[in-house]
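ok so heres the complex, two chains, lmk if somethin looks off
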Amino acid sequence: MTGISRRDFLKLTAAVTASLGLTRSGPAYKILSGTDGTRPGIIVLLFDAMSARHLSLYGYGKETTPNLERFAQHATVYHSHYASGSFTTPGTSSILMGMYPWSHRAINHGGLIKRSLTNQNIFSLMGNQYYRTAYAENLWADLFLRQFQSGLEDHISPTAFGYQNKTINPFLGLADLPDSDMIYYTFNQFLLTGDGQDPTQWAGSPSLGFLDYLHVFDKRNLDEASAEYPYGIPYNSFYYFQIPQAFPEVTDRIQRLVRDSSPLFGYFHFWSPHEPFRPRAEFVNKFPDLPIPDKPHHPLATSQLSPADYAPTIKVYDEYIADVDDGFGKLLDQLTSAGVLENNYLVVTSDHGQLFERGDSGHTTALLFDSVIHVPLLISAPGVQTRRDVYSPTSAADILPTLLNLAGAQNPASSEGKLLPGFGGQEDMSRSVFSMDAKYDSAFEPFQQATISLIKGNMKLIYYLGYAAYPDQIELYNLQDDPDELEDLRDQLPGLAAQMKDELLTSLSDANKRL
Amino acid sequence: MTRILSRRLPNFRDILPVYAIIAFMVYGWTLFTYLRYLQYWLRFLNIREILAIFCYSMLADLAESLFILFILLGICLISPAKVLKDTFVVRGTSLVVCTLASVFVFLNNFTDLNAYMNMALPWAVATILGAILIAFFATRLAFVGKAARWLSDSMTIFLYIFLPVTAISLITVIVRNIV
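and the predicted structre for the whole thing:
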């Protein structure tokens, strides 16, 4: 019989320890928590419009996220994490409020959180024991930070990190004005040419509106192909940015804040990989094309796109994600070498995904299929070197109670989220997670026309409320057996469909009562 | 300095009607657009917030209308009197009406910044040339001059609405930013 060598014994010990860490039921590690007198720093990095379905971290066929995978080796990875909405406004507000859109009511394009609830935001609840800072490149997300100013020590201007303005708005960078949310609406959404709003993009000011066109024309060279940017330089609605410049500047700011203002609670909301997808040259043509499933056209789709139409957009989206992942990798290296992760939690997530199927494209869609609501969530804890994988459904609304728990702060009664598994919560496959889209409804009244999805275990029910083209329909999918959501099981499993619909309608009714 | 300014600038009785036509067009466009946006804002903004946008817009309109007026006065300052100063009401009105009307047409038809930015520069050049041409002939065609005078004089009445509303808006904005 061959004896076990010392080296083999150590290997075995390491493997057993690691496998214990991967066990679903037991705690992976001791949580450094505010409840035991310490106050860990917490840094949230949000990458806008990053669909989990396009990340190699979650099994996508293209290796889009090697750096997220590297980070995952020391983090808790949530495999069934869901945004609460299909675009920035409901997606971000649910993270910051710990509520579903039917409660916080930020449901419209550029909408605001219900005014009576604004003091329930994560910054205010975290308390002034923390140095609370926030930055959002996405101005719809920055609107919330404007609503939460009293809970922030440092509201970083959206133009803080060396961008070139695409608009002539003189108030774009002045996020700290007392009435800055109304100033935002006046200039960005009304007097200037608008940021993709409905019902019209007419500029309310003839001079500013026209000068805006001339200004954009003057910056047109930034939109043209260059050796480094074959699709032009990335931009959001209002300014151009470059990941190799912006990410290091944000990283420097984080390092400085951690050094000077601990404990830090920092929220950093990056626009990338939101459209327009503009990867750098080194990421273009990086991946071979994958077959795109041909899914049936949906009655609520806004166009007639086919898989062939999607192919070029998917290609460049994936390349752009790889570009963003590269930027994240450098950020991670710098934070690691500076020792920031030794005493700070790092949360990486997204506010919503991106949809390329059934005739629709983009993310302000009424179709709540997985690619638009399934988003990444990874959390690394100080001193933890092992990976943990969580497969039970979790929600964007869970982030607030979990982070408050880590900070030793009180979770408000208004929160609809639960503690995340691994950070005080347990895996619960029977737990219900909701996502919704009601962007054309009134924020002040019960939903009239909305799409709401309910995920419970592996099953997903999508309920379509009040659409003339698809009135009060449901769809039922098994996400484990049918991840592409091709086989509608509503007729095969009528009992389960009815049960889940009842639960969804009851929850909706309860939410309406709280209005 | 004051003597030079008074010699080169039109008198107040001529400036006022031209300012009136500028204000009518700038404020009028904003109010018209504001009404179009109203049904959208009503989805998620309350009445106070919608009125706040109105107040900020009125202040922006005041700044914008004065800015356009100062451009005209600037032309008076640097050009011979017969170019604009001596015919300020007729030519000033013609310039303003043609330029702003052209901008309205542009903004009405080309509502996507990225798609139509290439149109802006040729449109601006064509607008300026066209406005200069019309302003030049306005003093040579009696009915055009008469129409310009009538129009600018008639618009003066609206200043009695716009200016008090702007004053109230200013107070509202100050209060919102202090309280």
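quick notes: Chain A touches chain B through 47 residues (CB under 8 Å). thats all i got rn
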